[in-house]
Amino acid sequence: MGSLTSYISIHDREKEGVDDPDSDDEASSDCEAALMDPKETQILEPSRGRLHQAIQKILQVLRILLQYLLPSFLLPVTDSDEPRRLHPTAWLDGLRGIASLLVVIHHASLLGFSWEIHDGWAPDRHQTAWFIRLPIIRLLISGPPQVAIFFVVSGYAISHKALKLSHQGRFAEAGSSLFSSVFRRHPRLFLPAGIVVLCTALMTLLDPTWFGTNGFPNVAVPTRTVPQAKNLIGQLRNWYDAEIQSTRPISNGFYEQADPHVKQNPFDPNLWTLPMEFSSSMVVFLFLVACIKLHNRVRMGLALSLIIYLQYYFDFPALHMFLSGMLICDLHFDIADMLSTADPRSDTFILSVWARVRRTVVSRAVAKFKHSYMFGRAVGLSMFIFALWLLSTPELTYGPHESWGYMTISSWVSPWYGDHFLSPYGAILVLGTACEAETATRSPSQNADKAGSG
Q1: How many structural domains are present in the chain?
Q2: Does some domain include residue 155?
Q3: Which of 44, 106, 262, 425 could form a disulfide with 143 if both were Cys (CB 3.0 to 4.6 A apart)?
Q4: Residue 335: domain span
């Protein structure tokens, strides 16, 4: 009211033509008082305060999102932060990370190069990009070997907790762990991929040229053709049909991408491995439910027999590799148990597998080199290089029978197995040597802690 009264009095004086210096000074002071009146300024403060709070909330949400999206090594570290305890299978993350990067490089190579770059190395023929075709080097652009590593590592990872509890005699907890794993397996595999495919469907609806129209000339995969509807409802229907067909665990679960039984996801054909992972995981869980209470050696013997049976008669590559990863995990715990209780001065500490075998030439030779650090490292490194060489076997479409380094060994494999023999066993050996190296780097006390706590 004070400001309004001052404004009226000034206006009345101007109308009356009164020219009074004192009144002008009084009026100006009244205006300044009105401008500085707290009641007037409080009208603007709530709106500014709400805007400031909204900005602070947005920044807080962005900060939380960045903490989830950014890698841990890019986040700020304070003195109060305690080092996080690594989970038992953290040593596998490096192997999976390298395989993931190489899969990305493989798919990028299909967009920029022809299929010829994936042929085997044959120096007697004129070949371009011959260096990248060399054994082991060719793994940098090869996709199927990385898929084999994923399958073997997945079999190891999904069975790790249940087998750890089994070796500790905690069978009830092992059963609960398996029930939880079975319940969560389907959404963990298919839900993230379904969201990505939904985004792809929406983007192609908004921009039909999202994947390009021509691509580079003379490349393996110049562009991708995806379903496109005229409206949102139609595109959502395309996405729904694609998800239903591509997530069928039976027909899609035991065959590879090129098999006619497999229904490809038209929005992203690279998701063909997910049904195979799901079906193979269910078989691993079923095997563990049936055999978790058996003696460790009996369970491993049954697993090995099942692997040979499935490989010889049915040739289900994903199932064979998943079960092999599970067997490596079981064997890993068994070796850790024996190393934790063995005398470091005895032969069983060095060659635990031969613990119940009479001393022979082999055991005496091992005993001779048991204190040789370089000997153990040389054997492990040699096995790892052999595993990489086996893993990099060219697929049948890229001429392994004409590739130097693989002519003889590929001729030994029956055509029945196709590409499902040499490279998968290379992936199994890669995980086995890496697992043994992880065990060898620990002391007996650390092995005892691992056997007790996992």
Answers
A1: 1
A2: yes
A3: 106
A4: 94-184+275-341+372-453
Q: What is the CA radius of gyration of the chain?
A: 34
CA distance 394 to 31: 89
Distance CA 19, CA 17 (A): 6
| Per-residue pLDDT tens digits of the chain, which is 454 residues long | 444 444 444 444 444 444 454 444 544 445 444 444 544 445 545 566 777 788 888 888 887 777 766 666 666 666 555 666 777 777 788 888 899 999 999 988 888 888 888 887 777 666 677 888 888 998 998 888 999 999 999 999 999 999 999 999 899 999 999 999 999 998 899 988 999 999 999 998 888 887 777 777 778 787 788 888 889 999 999 999 988 887 776 655 555 555 555 667 888 888 888 888 998 999 999 999 999 999 999 999 999 999 999 888 877 888 989 999 999 999 999 888 887 765 544 444 444 444 444 555 656 665 665 556 677 778 888 899 999 999 988 887 777 777 888 888 888 887 777 777 888 899 999 999 988 776 655 544 454 455 444 4
Q: Is residue 279, in this structure, part of any structural domain at all? A: yes
The one-character DSSP state at 398 is G
User: Residues 6 or more apart from 332 whose CB is under 8 A from it?
Assistant: 435, 439
For residue 102, is it within any domain? yes
